[in-house]
Write a structure and sequence with these properties.
The protein is α+β, with helices and mostly antiparallel strands and 338 residues long. Strands 1, 2, 3, 7, 8, 9, 10 and 11 form an eight-stranded antiparallel sheet that branches. A hairpin with a 2-residue loop joins strand 1 and strand 2. Helix 1 packs across helix 6. It is globular and about 60 Å long.
Amino acid sequence: MYSSSLADAPAIREPLHAPVAHLVRGGVTEGIHYGSVVVLGAGGDIELQLGDVEAAFYPRSALKPVQAVAMVRAGLPLDGELLSLAAASHSGEERHLAGTRRILELAGVSEDDLRNVTDLPYDPAVRDAWIREGRAPDRLAQNCSGKHAAMLYTCKLNGWSLDDYLDPAHPLQQAIAEIVEDLTGQRIARVTVDGCGAPLFSVSLHGLARAAARVTASEPGTPEARVADAMREHPEMASGSGRDVAALMRAVPGLLAKDGFEGVEVAALPDGRAVAVKISDGANRARVPVTAAALVRAGVDPALLTEFAGEPLLGGGEPVGCVRPARALDPVTVRACA
């Protein structure tokens, strides 16, 4: 069972990653993706670990559900699509921009109050259309704009200052840090700045999995359950059309999943089973099949995960290989590659 006391911050060290996926072309191992994987049982015990699951690392956007829980605890009244967007790394589709504008409208603030960086839409097709239309990078299009709009809304409701809401010493960020420690069960090792400009908290991969499990296994109506329900019911608002993390939530009943830059993914089920993955080189081509294999080890029916086995490697336009999980992760069904 989970302890109510906080563990010490994870050690800041060079992580001892292990092989988690093999790049196989024409029957020969061409490359190896290193990383770390942890699988938690329903009671919180570690059922599988590969690599270094206790070293400090940055969860990147995989921590957004926890940040959203912190904002709901602080009074953020959003639900449904807009709450899912508050925890999103969105693709920059029109529905994401419209949802962000709606959050800003509810908060009584404007786009000028946003402090996230400007960017083009994340989705390649949306980005290409944006460029063809001659549109410049802006804050709404940046994939974290929903979270930043929700941060402004939370500040407005609590009477907190808006101009400096990204300062780690700001009451909002202090409240978020408190919930990060509460849900991960450990002290934060270090605080830096994420790509969008918001504070980024370093925890362990084990702590990230524990936080996701606590969110999905929480009682109905709690801030944790509200965030989990919003993301599961509106996965495309938390990511985008065609995104693998949205498809994964659609495929596995009750699953909450969130990805993050640099090869991070966390996923958890309503009974508290959870997995967390970090690919050391940040490769999505390894993140997806490794996460699927970890979910199988957590007890998810493999038949639900066939589309997440990984894209084939092509030679001359034809499949000649694949990225497959390492035997240590998938000892029973190691897929043969072309």
